[in-house]
Amino acid sequence: MGRPDVTPVICNHQVLHEPEAVLAAALEAYVAIDSTDRVVGWNAAAEATFGHSHAEACGREITALIIPERFRDQHRAGLRRVAAGGPGRVLGQRLQLNALHRDGHEFPIEMTLTATDTPGGPVFHAFAHDVTTAVRAGRFSAVETAVSRGLAEAESSGAAAARVVEALGVKMGWPVAELWLVDVDRQLLLCAARHAEPGRRLGAFAIDELDYGMGLPGRVHGERRPLWIPDLAADTGSVRSRAAAAIGLHVAVGVPIWAGSTILGALCVYGDRAEDPEDTLTGLLSGVAAHVGQYLERRRAEELAVELARTKDEFLALVTHELRNPLTAITATAAMVSEETGTLTPQELGRYLDTITRNAQRLTVMAEDLLDLARLESGHLAIHPTAVDLAGIIDTAVQAVARPVADKNLTVTVTVPPRLPLHADPDRLRQVADNLLSNAIKYTPAGGTITVTAGTRTDDDGVDRITWSVADSGIGIPPADRPRLFRRFYRASSALDRRIPGTGLGLVITRAIVERHQGTIALADQPGPGTTFTIELPVKPPA
Ligand code: ADP
């Protein structure tokens, strides 16, 4: 390994008489080793870079000191080859490789390796510096590019979500990456896409639905901020963290996906170890989540435009069908009354007038619902809360439907305490009660039962809540229709198949009223016939 014609370095030995001082002051880590792999040179920058002091490093085998275990054999073989006079593939090259710090973490370095001959054999000189920041920036920008491209090219929200988690998984090396989205209708989080590295079996970890507050996605959604779980095994309170730990995952990071001030979901990654500091990583993920949020918002706007066109068609169909039917009944009955005025018995006249009144009421309800819908869409569905008693409201509403209940021979059971005080808008609560009761009557065949229950309880957060449910033994709602039930004009196939009249507006308005009271309404997931709607209302709505 001769080194002929070495170009001189020092021009003035009087000024630069101590080359070692130069190495000592260098900002590059300087590491020299002999042909047996022992450290013979180690400057202050090497101490700072690799964590070992000069005293600790000198004389140690470099391979065991700073080379990650999986590369050690390869490194030793290379060194033997060069020491035996073989070609040094790494000599004179600028290399990027992974080094091991004294504290056990791996990090990328850029290094150049040269050799000089000494009487004792060749000595190898390495100049190196930590390139974590540059490598990370490259990795982050690769992820951002892949995400932007994925979102631009995706043909559907599902495909977009898949591209995002793939970019995080592949480019960042996270074994598992997930994108969760809120399902407003069902009040839970759905896994829109999951990327798992090949060969990693997910077992119980691979679930696709999470209740609010559950798992990392549910917690990110609930707390509305990025969350970091440094040790999944120690997070014993969470079933999902335990499932993650069971498949060898150690850390997890999740960030919310925002659209304005609304959280659309959460982006979560799970890994064996965190290579980047918490702030840096949540920064990257939040940037990606912002892209996703903007994409979803854009998509939503497009879907709304399509829905608006569809709504217009549906509205026309509704007007022609649902308004024309009662109008025809009123006009025809009124015409009959006027033609037969002289010959009608009082009972016949009473029946005709009843028909007219019933159909006129149907039109009034529909007109009010449409007005409420318009108010809802323009954000003007006002509520005027005051101290009210829900028990009284339920009672009056049940009494008001005594006639249709008797006509259909239905049994109504009301289990409500004598008083249920809360702070709410009495007229709007009555509207909710009327809506749920009239649906229960309308969609329950003769002879069926309707059960109304309500009561107060204090939830885990110490908030007093009223739970109020209306259950019936009627035609039920097929599972396929349930997710869309609270959309305007939506009618379940069970109602359409039986040609039961309706507009699909009542539940939309009911839900809006309940939500304006900071409450929730849900359709119970019950097997078998019948339907149960459950409303939860805070006794005192939060300020
Ligand atoms: P409408 O009853 O006027 O169609 P709603 O918005 O009140 O409108 O209800 C929407 C749909 O939900 C109904 O068309 C019906 O398919 C279904 N639905 C609501 N309540 C019940 C119930 N108690 N039993 C069965 N289906 C119901």
Automatic annotation (TrEMBL):
Pfam families: GAF_2, HATPase_c, HisKA, PAS. It is found in: Cell membrane. One of its GO terms (cellular component) is plasma membrane. The keyword Oxidoreductase does not apply. Residues 318-541 form the Histidine kinase domain. GO terms for molecular function: phosphorelay sensor kinase activity. Residues 22-86 form the PAS domain. Keywords: Kinase, Phosphoprotein, Transferase, Two-component regulatory system. NCBIfam families: sensory_box. This is histidine kinase. It comes from Spirilliplanes yamanashiensis.
